[in-house]
Structures are given as structure tokens and as C-alpha cells.
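ugh ok fine here u go
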Amino acid sequence: MSRYRQLTNEDTSMSDQDRDRRLAPRKRQRLSASRRSGRGLILGVVIAVAAALTACANPAGPTSPTGDAAAHQHAQVVRKSASQMNPAEIDRFERAFSYAVGKGYFDAFNQEHQNHERNRNHGIDLTATSPITAVAAPSITWGYRLLPWHRSFILEAEQMLRAALRERDRQEGRDPREADGLFIPYWDAVHDQALPGWVQALQPQGGTALVPPEGMPKGHPGYGKPVGSRYKIVFGRWPGNNIVFDKLPQLAYVPYILASDDFAGLYRKIEFETPLVQSALPAAKEGLETLQRRFPDNADVQIVAEAVKQPLPQNVDAVITQDIGAATKFVNAVLGVGYLATSEEFRPHPDQEVIRAVKAVYGTVVMPAHVDLHLWAGGLNPANPDVRGTVTYFNELAVDPAFWMLHTELDRWWYTWEQSHTGLPQLTGDDAQFQPLTPQEGAWYGGGHTYSLTQLAATRDLPYRYAEPYRA
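structure:
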């Protein structure tokens, strides 16, 4: 895997002068690319991460806001399921979110979510390319930061949305105090098994993003533009329209995640672990025989076929890979095999034998929830299978409310787990500090705070609670 390359933020002039006014004061930063080195943890079909953690040290607390911003930040709200919100709550969220996207207020959130080297906010990355390439973080600490970093990111987004709604209310002669009750809902994907209708209908227009180092696929609005340049986002979402990511997590899966004894197990199951469906292995081997016959020169098929020939352990969670490079190669071969089906499906006369064979291969694993929710929610463009939904691109996904709702659901799982567990990720020093937006980026809405791990993990002191914990 190539190492991270630095991006230069080359803003072009945009039509929305108000957005420019908001973003101009911040110091332009050099952004990291979405590719990482090949070292680190590897998402795989037959290999999973094994680690044991102890509690971490207690770093300093957050930067304290003052005045009105402090009062609003510490006012506790109740986050509800998106499918359980009443009409007034939906209207409030829709008006705030659409307004913020149109004004470009999410541009800084897109920029920081993409800035992996500053934020160290993922253990695994999926590139913007087609087919997808999985790239592991260079350190396990990046993965351990996933849940706390996104918790702080959601807190900043809620604060920004309240400020945006107050601004809109004042312009429209409405009572801005309604913004105090605004919250980002969670998407209970396991029980809903679909995006709620009002969420599916909410497809805001506006916002910009930076072209990542690997570029964008042909047909995407960022295609062909210089790396680091800014393009206008064209919103896209086709939930479930991906033949190998066409199922959401099932009812028994989340209790399996929440049964983890320590934070390491919880995190691993959310982002990395791919439990094997042993009963599906015979069908997978038959599918691979078909693919070998149909694609004798396809390297991805050969790599996966050779791996499946090996005896598979019952407990893949106990396997520690000795060859990270080979594991990375295998993971990306699996993604390449999946692309055989997605590209075939969109042909005028799809080869059903190929599609069935690929689906049999994918039937052997339960994909990690974090990956599954993103790729299911985004889907593939019916007119161009190389273009995925907005929520699947790390550099532009903040403008899709589904991104915030799926991560609020992951946060709810962690929140639920915390009610009966005390373990924290093994993070110390700067790794245990979280500043998803800089003070300059968050100044206009009173944000840009620094959060400590211990503050984020103290659920009783958070400025929100969930209407109910996760229940099977």
C-alpha cells in the first residue's frame, strides 16, 4: 500500500458568499489522503484482529466554552430513533440540516473527516476507487479512536446544527429557541431493515469536498479534477443497491457485539471482525470453482480460491496474522471478486452464473457493521456501478444525514455497552484527546472544542442520552 500523501487545500471561489465568510478565517491546513501504509490491522475473511486491553490513563478535560454556547452545549437532549421521531422533531432536523448543507457549513466537517493524519479516526479505510481498496491504519490506536472520535464529531455537529437553525429561524421570523431541543437521531438499522422514509427523502443539496489522492471514479463529479482541489458535491444515495452489500445486520448480531468483555472486543467486532458462516463454505468453494473456470486469468479469484482451500479455524478471532502484506492482498482480492458481480449486474444481459458464484463467496462472512452500514446505505448508482453513494466517500459524507444517523447508532451501541462495562480503549497522551474541528473552524457556532477520553466515556455527564439503550 502506498503511504499517505499530503493534500493542499486549493479552495476555488464558490457562489455562496456566506459560506466563504464562515470558512475564510480558518488557517488552511494540509490534509492527509485516504490511503495508508499497508502496515496495521487488516479486515479479512479468514483473519481478524486479536488484542487485549487494560484501562487507560485519565487525561485532561475539554476546553470549556463560555456564555450562551456553554449553556447550549450542556443542555441534555434525548436522542431518538429516526423512525420514532414526531413530525415536529423531523421538521426541525430537516430544516436545520438542509440549511446547513446549503450554506456550506458541513464543508469543514467533510474536510476534517478526510484529514486522517490529524484526527486518526479510523482503523480501516475504503478508498474512493472502483473497485474499492481496503487500507489499514498504521497503528492500532487509530482504530481505538474510532468510537470516541466520532462521539465528539457528533457533538460538534449537533452544536453546529442548533446554531444553523437559530440563524435560519431569525431570518424567517421564527422562535430560535426551538433549536435547543435539536438532536441527531440514530438509525436503528437492525430493527428497521431500511432507512426510514423521511430520511430517504432527505437528500440535501450543496456543499463541497476535496479530491482524494487516489482520485474519483469516472462519472463522479470529482473525476478528473486535480488532487486536493475542491468540487461541488452532487448528492447520491441508492440504499441496498449493491449486490454484495445488500443486507443489513441481523437481529442476533448486535447482542453478539455487546457481549464483548472489553473495549477491544467491542471495537474489533464493529470495524474488523468478519465471523465465518461455516455452513456456507461448501457453496463458496463451488462458487470459486465456477469463477476460476470463467476467469482463469483473474488474480483476485486465484488468491481467494487458494485461501479457501486452506483449513479454516472455527475461531478466526484468535488468529494473529504473521504476514500483513499477504493479508492485505487477500482482503483486496475479496473486494475484487465482489466487483465481478457488481459490474456484471449492470450489463444489458447479466451473467447470472457469475453473480450466483460471487454471492456464494460473500455468503461465508458477516461483514463488519461499520462497513456494512456505509456500503448498504450508499449503494451504487443505477446508471453507473462505479459510482457509490455520498455516504461511502470519506471526503464528502458529512452532507448525508444517513452518515450521522448510522454513527449515532454505533455510538448507541457503545453507550449501551458502557452501562455494564467500565473498560476504555488503551489510549494515552495526545491519542486520548479529541478535537474533531479546530477552534477556528468551530468559532462561528461556539465549537471547536477539545474533548478528553474520560469525559467522552462518562455517559452520565454527556449532554445527551438515548431514549432507550439497544435492545434485541
